[in-house]
From TrEMBL:
Residues 8-62 form the HTH lacI-type domain. The keyword DNA-binding applies. It comes from the Bacteria. CDD domains: HTH_LacI. This is Substrate-binding domain-containing protein. The keyword Transcription applies. Pfam families: LacI, Peripla_BP_3. InterPro entries: HTH_LacI, LacI/GalR-like_sensor, Lambda_DNA-bd_dom_sf, Peripla_BP_I. PANTHER family: LACI-RELATED TRANSCRIPTIONAL REPRESSOR (PTHR30146), LACTOSE OPERON REPRESSOR (PTHR30146:SF153).
Amino acid sequence: MPNGPRRATLATVAASAGVSVATVSKVLNGRSDVAPATRSLVESLLRQHDYVAPALAPRRGEGPGTDTVEVQFDADINAYSNEIIQGLVDTGAELGVGVVVGIRRGAARSGSWARDLVAAGRRALIAVTSQLTGGQLTALSRARLPLVVIDPLNLPRARVTSIGSTNFAGGLSATQHLLSLGHRRIAYIGGPATAACNQARLHGYRAAMEAEGAPVLPGYTSFGHFRYRDGLEYGAAVLDLPEPPTAIFVGCDEAALGVMEAARARGLRIPEDLSIVGFDDTQIARIASPPLTTVRQPLREMGGVALRTALRLAAGEPIDSHHVELATELIVRGSTAEVTCSRHA
């Protein structure tokens, strides 16, 4: 990461508070022999100065196995998250690095959040499908804590290091597959409208439709949160249109299962009456009924690349690129078939 402002020291905070360094140290260590008013003042100045305790040197005999990297999610763990975690844990075991998994709900207080991670001994932070504020990025830079983002929802700074996949190519191949089966009325149900990965998949879908001369009808694109309930809700809405689609490309496997359920509730058979393509190739794609045709996103490999990149940043080593995209691949299973005359009409 780029060099940030010089860290505040205990002496800096002590001078601002008009107390001794020993008093500031007592506050940091939770000692009780500090007057409440003094404690409140020192704690306020620690936050104001974005004070970060220096990392402790490893004890004699400790090796790289004592290093830990934190991976944080903004929402509950799901099938997508499990694949990422597996890749991180496998790579961590290979490198002798511990991986700590956490969920960060809501907007974390920028300064204390970064300080707490450093105080806990984290070498780096990996954030998954997160929307990070400018304040949080500044706090991480001041704490000199390297950050790598997997599938970022936003990229507020060009120099944020991120790992993703070829989402445009994935969206293109998913839609081309459905077009090759004779479908022309193809809908897209994606994730958050502003998410970079969703936009790329949507553009791939639109590019394939335009190249084939297939119109995207009104109501054929919708955006949720990459969840089962979103697939259920938006799948129901598009299937209830006066001219419903014969195929749906869904931005993730979990939402695709929601679309499947919405179709079954309307007496539609998959794939005889409706073809469905997902995205990710998580375990639920393989155990769905019928098994889900999907775009494989190399989630485990993405986790491994993110961890290796984070460790290189923590060691001050250069990296080849601030954004890496791994290749996607269409996996054809039982949820897609040629369009029938009755549904094409």
